[in-house]
Q: What sequence folds into this?
């Protein structure tokens, strides 16, 4: 496509809402995804540490 001005480019031939909305949603998802992954990883590591501690305590109480 060829645009004669910046306003024609941003209008995207009448599909601006769909095109720029799609870009916006994609950018938002790409920004939020690493945050969600980091939180899930932190929670998982914390849960695993608690589980290992509980198992170690149970094992020690069985030995006593």
A:
């Amino acid at each position: 496509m060829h645009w004669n001005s910046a306003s024609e480019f941003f209008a995207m031939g009448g599909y601006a809402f769909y095109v720029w909305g799609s870009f916006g949603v994609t950018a938002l998802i790409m920004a939020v995804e690493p945050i969600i992954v980091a939180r899930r990883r932190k929670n998982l590591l914390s849960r695993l540490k608690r589980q290992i501690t509980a198992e170690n305590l149970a094992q020690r109480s069985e030995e006593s």
Q: What stands out?
A: The helical segments are 6-11, 16-63. The chain has a mean pLDDT of 92. The radius of gyration is 26 Å.
